[in-house]
Amino acid sequence: MRLVSEEKIKKRRLSSTQIIVLGFLAAIFAGSLLLMIPAASAEGKETGFITALFTATTSICVTGLVVVDTFSHWSFLGQFIILILIQIGGFGVITLYSSIMMMLKKKFTLRTRLLIQDYYNLSSIQGLTHFLIKVIKGSFIVEGAGAFLYAFIFIPRFGLLKGIWVSVFNAVSAFCNAGMDVIGSNSLIDYQTNIPLNLITIFLIVSGGLGYVVWFDCLENIKRSWRKGFGIKIFFRNLGEHTKLVINLTLILLVAGTLLVLLFEWNNPATIGNLTLGNKILVSFFQSVTFRTAGFATVPQEALTPSTCLAGCIFMFIGGSPVGTAGGVKTVTVFVVLLNLTSFIRNRTEPVVFNRAVSDKLINKAHAIFMTNLLVTIVLIILLMQLSNAPLLASVFEIFSATGTVGLSRSLTASLNTAGKFVVMAGMYAGRIGPISMALFFNISRSDKNEIKYANGHYIVG
């Protein structure tokens, strides 16, 4: 009887994936209730449940798609609640829970350590507390630096108090890759050619998108190089293979995105067609960055050519890098899938990068994430078109933006009916926690391995 009861208790325990999925869901509903408070709206009236739910979802999922203007619909209290939700979404509910545990000086159980390890995709549970402290401190330092730099732009325009508030809100939103702002109704279009604002925003977006593991590896090597007098070449040589890969992939994607936007929008008067060469490059570079899950815009997204939109969907699908604030399937995931493809074509026994083999387990995980995200995105596009009667290109752009937690829209979000809003919310939620996590959430068996080894079957593919 005792063995049976222990087995039942074990089965009833939530897995790490289920805790993460339910944690985000609980945060969304709590945020929705707070945003429904009359004092949270600018007019002092209670906001409808669907609007509050959508806003809480886009904030926690750090996406940025909105059905009401953030700067005009919400009061200061409402904007403050949204900012807290964005920060929670950027950190993740698991980090928030861990932070509270550390402040209360509670020791982490083994189960909590495994939960944190799963959330951050770390290879070991050693040094988790130190890692979390560095994540929180590092995030606040970067956000604080961004807010300080923004203040020189926004205080002269909005005055001292509002200028500080706008600076803080934008810094947190940019670092968390949320794409929401309290400046006005047209995002950053008024600052299209403002070089300081563009560079500050780009710095914050890219910093959040690189991932904490890359941060700490770079900082550790900078310290080591400073102490021992190493040059740039040795600095890069000492970086971990993951850091090298992420930096290279990020640079390639940013340059490729800039060139494609320049090419497709060169003669488009509604975007960059009438700008000088320097400003064309600046706007194209910003658009390339914001496609990578940021959500801010310096040109109207509905004015982009179809070619730019489709190319943007690819970049939104890829997103940022692992263990950061960005969304998407992640750069390394796509790279591993393509690396495995090229290795198969070249008849190599194993994929290799930087003279290091990529394990079969990592390849299988990358393919699972890639295909699950792609299938979910396609299904949601079909549902959005069917339920909201939305145009094809706008629907494709909207859903890729939602599942990639980007926040860019071709002016479709606010015009969606209730069913369409729920489809987009499902996309944002799935994109934030990962569709593969949803699949694991409903995994009833909980078995990690096959108990039986079967003989190979004779199947034909291709």
Question: How would you describe this structure to a colleague?
Answer:
Helices cover 65% and strands 1% of the residues. Helix 2 crosses helix 7 (110-120) and helix 10 (195-210) runs parallel beside helix 14 (277-290). Strand 1 (352-353) and strand 2 (356-357) form a beta hairpin. The longest helix has 31 residues, at 128-158. It is mostly helical. Mean pLDDT is 87; it is low at 1-11.
In short:
The protein is mainly alpha-helical and 462 residues long. It has helices spanning 2-12, 16-35, 49-60, 70-73, 76-91, 93-103, 110-120, 128-158, 160-175, 195-210, 212-228, 232-237, 241-265, 277-290, 306-318, 331-345, 360-388, 392-403, 418-433, 435-441; strands at 352-353, 356-357.
Could you outline the blueprint of secondary structure elements for this entry?
Elements lengths: L1 H11 L3 H20 L13 H12 L9 H4 L2 H16 L1 H11 L6 H11 L7 H31 L1 H16 L19 H16 L1 H17 L3 H6 L3 H25 L11 H14 L15 H13 L12 H15 L6 E2 L2 E2 L2 H29 L3 H12 L14 H16 L1 H7 L21
Antiparallel strand pairs: 1-2
Helix pairs in contact: 2-3, 2-5, 2-7, 3-5, 3-19, 5-9, 6-8, 8-9, 8-10, 9-10, 10-14, 11-13, 13-14, 13-15, 15-18, 16-17, 17-18, 17-19, 18-19, 19-20
